[in-house]
Amino acid sequence: MKATLSFWGRPDDGEAYRLQVYSTTSIQPEELNKLYQYLCFEFSQHPFLEIYSCNPPDGLACVEHQRREVAYRKRLHAKQHDGEYDESLPPLIPTMRTGFNDQFMSGFCFLLTSKSYLQGSFRDNDHGTGPWWISFDRSLPSAVKQLDMIKRLDSPATDLRTFSEWGILVNPEIRDINVNITTNESEMDSNLKELMRGIYSTYVNGQIDYGLHEPPPPVSSDTLTLQHMQDILEQQRQMVENQSVDSNVLHLSWGAENETVAVTNNSSDGESDLQYVIYVQFLADIVQEKTTLLETAARTFTAGIISHLPTTKMIYFEFRIPSSSSLSSLLSAPPNGFDVGASHEFEAGTIMRALPQINRDCSITPLPHHFFTVVLDKPSFIQEPGVLFYTLWTDPWQYIEPQTTDTVIETRRSAGIREAARRLAMLAVEENVQDSARKLTREEHIKLLSLSPEEYDQKMNF
User: Fold this and answer.
1) Which residue of 74, 100, 296, 388 shows the fewest CB atoms closer than 10 Å?
2) 336 and 402 housed in the same domain
3) pTM of the predicted structure, to 2 decimals
């Protein structure tokens, strides 16, 4: 997705926060002033708008483009010598705290899907839906070697009283992408003003956070060579075999043109305890050895999940290669074709398939949704966090109820293969976990606060 970039806005003084804006329709020069008034009316601190004219198909494409842009600008600025500043370089892209209870900064952008901004912000705006509000983790997937523990916490690690009295929950996943859509544009001003309060650094008051603490972007291209991918997958396979799981005992059956493969350890024709569709995203652009790589990935992932389950469960996983390497391709993915999830008895005589649809590891009944799948977005999914849970809550191309704000698409990155196994099996349901299956330990707390055990005990005696 290629894009040209234009700027709009006249901040009065000081450092200007930059909001990234994408649009599915072309924005004419004479419309820019109305767009700026629509988004930034009566702001005390006016931001710049960075407007990308690339006609993205959806919010997921915006995120993929924005992650590359963040990494590109960081690489340019990293080449500068200490103390030097080159005004010709594009400025770094800032982070934002996007939720009322969100303790951590993330990426944020808008996607305009209509010309409703020309009519201004009011309740009965019938010229189309308002902007899609998109928040996301800014790191390129290849740069994420492990999930920061601090991002997985339900409360800040510095909240000593919460830790002492109730414990701090550790979530098994973090937000990867959230795409929200609003049809009520009368709240645009107040909502955006509230959002702009979260532009300053979590750690330094009054300073905009440019995410320089994030994992560094890869120096080379983010695309793996065929040989490198084969080497990584072979290493993953050996790791699974060292865990005393023989992937060769799994039964494989191929679909049409070898684009899909089903893997099961169930010798009968009945339904399995765990049934999921898994999209192997990193194979989308591969031409040679695709069938061999898909089989290796399928065997390795299935064996990796089995190795972390406490008891034997019957598994049926169908592995597919998406039509493109963009997550956008899953918006028009074919139906799963069978019930997905982990089969559990919620009430006596009532069997349902539960899904990891929220980031907390607890027992919940299935939530209404349009589509759920698992995505492997890099070949190192055993050693690194390369498993995504993808939920399409509402079909974005269908009618959406007016005067609402809804989450349309959500992807969450699992902390690792152990956490992914527990969540796909929804073990919290059979364990009847109502709060969370995992809380921060004393040792982890000490490490996060960078204290010695003696200093820690003194602080906890508040």
Assistant:
1) 100
2) yes
3) 0.92
